[in-house]
Hints:
Layout: H1 2-6, H2 11-18, H3 22-31, H4 58-72, H5 81-90, H6 102-111, H7 133-136, E1 142-153, E2 157-166, E3 172-177, H8 182-196, E4 201-204, H9 208-211, H10 222-229, E5 233-236, H11 246-260, H12 268-285, H13 287-292, E6 315-321, E7 327-330, E8 333-336, E9 345-351, E10 356-362, E11 372-377, H14 388-406
Amino acid sequence: MVKLVRDGSSSRNAARQMGVSLSHVQYWVRRTAGIRLDRVDWKDRPGGLSRAANRISKAQEDSILKTRKALCLSALGEWGAQAIHAQLTASHDGLQPPVPSVRTIGRVLARRGLLDGRQRTRRAPPPRGWYLPLLAAHEAELDSFDIVEGLVIQGAVEVEVFNAMSLHGRLAGSWPQGRFTAQHVMACLLEHWQIHGLPHYVQFDNAPLFQGAISYADTLGRVVRLCMQLGATPVFAPPRETGFQAAIESYNARWQAKVWQRFMHADVAALNVRSAAYVQACQLKAAPLIAAASHLRRPCPADFKPAAKAALKGMVIFLRRSDEEGRVTVMGRLYLVSADWQHRLVRVEVNFTSGVMNFFALRRAAHASQPLLKTEPYKAAAKQPGGLRALRDGATRGRRLDQKRSKP
Length: 408
């Protein structure tokens, strides 16, 4: 290729004929400039020595390994790079080569495979929705809902936003307004589902607005009843656990950054206009995912009206973490799952149709294995104090007993 260039061909043509890059031809043309081709050193080696000048000798490495072996049997029981450096420094008589540094000794130990430290095992993350088998197998869709609070427009106008995000389709939704009630949440759910269809699962956090009042045990609110009447299974994420609400929490942060903090809003109506434009842009961006997950949704009745006093039918799922005795709290009551399953995740399926509670073991490291830990019958009793009401009543009775005992 150099001869082609010297004969008058361009470097680009020479590179094309020899099947190499243009930079490769230019490199050898510069390297052979002014030299006869029969006198060119064609060895493509980097300049410098084949061995680093400051690399320690094999004898020094053997001395390091010998010292480490001796320290392994010492009474102190320290044989790391720092201990080896201290031992070599103490035995150095000044006539030997200088003692290698602690970092050099560490590199020698790593090169010889003698480091005792264990690296953290990195496991692949579980699939989305791993805690629900149908969801992990992409045979069902889940909609997550949450409320962002603490927003104030100039003039002391309090604002809350009800957000939605689906797991597989990344279908977003936002409804800013004043303070939300259960009736407002139900209206937003119906509006969203009548447009996009019903999912198989609906996930919330454990706020009383979604789950219902916690004054009594075995009570469920109107939002849960609406989902069950439509055939969507409510799922409640475990308290103070990360990961389960990641999709909706991420969307909450994006909505606040791209809508709330990005513009000045004169009133709630202007905020709704900005929010609707952002939601439309998010749905347009996720259009391929939404279309791919559309078969996981079913039509929602356009004329549906919830029945507040209808009997509960269907299932409600609670994701919980057991305590030190293997117990979980569900709807204000404490259930013993297993004494061998302490501080572990549990999926509790409360089936109101069959009157059965099933407790399944959950582990991220083995997400495909979710064995059944316990099954027990369930029957919603009459309203009895539970949850905060039970704690409050117990504290009141305790104060009354203390007052009686303190009377002369």
